Amino acid sequence: MTRIDFHSNVGNQLDYACRLTRKALGAGCKLVVLHADAAQLAEFDQLLWSFSGPDFLPHVAVGDRLANHTPVLLCVPGDGTENVSHREILLNLSAAVPDDFAQFERLIEIVPQDEQATQAGRQRYRHYQQQGFPLNHITAK
After folding, report:
1. Which residue, among 102, 101, 93, 96, has the nearest Cα to 120 in the 3D structure?
2. Short-list 69, 100, 74, 103, CA closest to 88
3. The model's pTM
């Protein structure tokens, strides 16, 4: 069963996601990063290249020819995450419950501080809770 971690009260979602990505890669994990907004996903892509000077955070789009050889895959809903070999971590930066999250060992939800994102995060939390998934809550500092 998928383990779900909620990180709430996050100031800057993309910076926070970069830190979690670096941490996951440091632990030898592979992950898929999902964002509903293609422009925000492109911004995240750029941040991964410049986020941490000494760290290389290799990543490509889910449809890239190197996807099966790259530890971090970036996608928007509908990109076909059901066809990727990565099944360790799904990092959800969207406001919706990902369609195929149960295929992953772990789902990480990042909930920014603004009211709209908080409400959407609460709805996702209740959805997972009602489905019986184990939930962990982390408050960002």
Report:
1. 96
2. 103
3. 0.94
Mean pLDDT, rounded, for 35-55: 89
* Amino acid, res. 67: A
**What residue has token string 């492109």?**
42
User: Domain 3-139 belongs to what architecture?
Assistant: 3-Layer(aba) Sandwich (3.40)
Please give the pLDDT value at position 140.
87
Amino acid at residue number 27: A
Domain locations along the chain: 3-139
Beta carbons within 10 angstroms of residue 10's beta carbon: 23
Are the beta carbons of 93 and 40 closer than 8 angstroms?
Answer: yes
C-beta separation of 112 from 123 below 8 A: no
What's the CA gap between 115 and 127, in Å, rounded? 18
